[in-house]
Amino acid sequence: MFLAEDESVGSKLFTALQQDVVSELETRFAGAPCGFTAAPGRVNLIGEHIDYNDGFVLPMAIERYVVIAANRCEDPTRPFARIYSLDLDATIEIPLNAGAEPTMEGWGRYIEGVFSGFVARGTTIPPFDAVIGSNVPHGGGLSSSAALEVATATLLAEITGDALTKLEKALLCQRAEHVFAGVPCGIMDQYSSVFGEANQLMLIDCQSQDCELVPFDSSGVSVLITNSNVKHELTGGEYAERRSQCDSALAKIGIASWRDVSWEDVAAKQSELTDEEFRRARHVVTEIERTIKAADGFRNGRWEEVGTLMNASHDSLRDDFEVSCRELDVLVEIAIELGQEHGVIGSRMTGGGFGGSTVTLVEDAKVADVIAAIQQKYQEVTGLKCDCFASHPALGAHVIQTQP
Ligand code: GLA
Predict the structure, then answer these.
(1) pLDDT digits (tens, 9 = 90+) for 312-331
(2) Could you point out which of 130, 147, 186, 366 has its C-alpha 20 to 30 Å from the C-alpha of 108?
(3) Pocket of ligand 1 (CB under 6 A)
């Protein structure tokens, strides 16, 4: 019920965004259309902070997109692309021969990083003008930056004819994030934005970089995303710190990959690990196990088990990995307190943490009531407003066929 309604909300928003971007392109930039692309944000159902630890993650692309429309520039010798952001009402110029180091500031860095990746492949980028619009909440932990990178890469592939594979595209965008945005992220966000499929979750094996699709359609359960509207500072530094704590714990455990580490291996080395390293290790090992079990639970509709695993994932992220924050904990507590009686199956923080969003599984028929209850209680407790929406698993990056 609610899903069907929400599906039309998601697709209506997407259509409106496409229209806005195209009409802005028409008024702002002359020239023949040469590319029109979209790439989605993502929400991760379970498997947090283990993509950079050779683990499994279980995300889906969401019905919120970055859209780019481009016209070929009439002067073929112009050495830059001109890009206008509808949301920021700002124009930037990106050098077509982008080098290995960032020269831009802010959102231009993500785009320059993707340009640089194509240049490094030996691809010549022709000058163009483009308009970008987005309805992926910015700073909501839903990978708006990965969506921007992947939409840009999809546009450049279209304009240049560079037939890079999907995996090459995801890796190129991840590298842009590392080098140009300075965030040493794993592969999950860019991968989800590239590989997303309608009505499918992705069980990504971050060691082999393969992905198994897990069907998830209107089986009576909705994925509810709640943006806490809080983004704490220090996220970049904390993220890199977690990565290095995991690396140092693994080195002390003396096994090459977290995939081969058992709980017994961690326990056996407890005395050599610092308390922090021990707790980080406990999170990694237990979260890998939870994710594999949860994928099987989704596959077979064992909702109670999936819910228990999601709740346990949140506890582990809060206590052992220490990447939650009060606002996220409040949202999860409210959802869990509503409980089965109100149709809540499970709830957890999603993404990098320190703010951003939670993901909650809710019985379809109860979604509207759950949203109302969460919003009211969250405001009572924190004084803040949260934004809620349900999303189906959505199609990943693609060329939009309608001519701009
Ligand atoms: C961020 C990173 C991802 C992943 C998550 C945590 O979103 O970009 O690679 O590590 O945090 O699971």
Answers:
(1) 999 999 999 999 999 999 99
(2) 186
(3) 48-49, 51-52, 185-186, 188-189, 351-352
